[in-house]
Amino acid sequence: MDMLWPYHSSLETIAVLAAVSGWSWMMQMGALSRSLTEAYLRAHDLLTTEGGDD
Fold this sequence. Notes:
By secondary structure, the chain is mainly alpha-helical. It has one helix at residues 10-49. The model has no long low-confidence stretch (mean pLDDT 82).
C-alpha cells in the first residue's frame, strides 16, 4: 500500500487533494475561457463581414 499511497499524515493527504482539485479547476476554467473567446471571435467576425466587402 505504501507504493500506491506514500502519504501518511492527514496534512499531506489534504495538500495532495487540494493540489489535484486546484489543477482540475484550472483546466476546466481554461477550457471554458478558450471556448468563450472562440465564440466571441466568431460572432465578431460575423458582425464585421455581414455587410459585405463590395
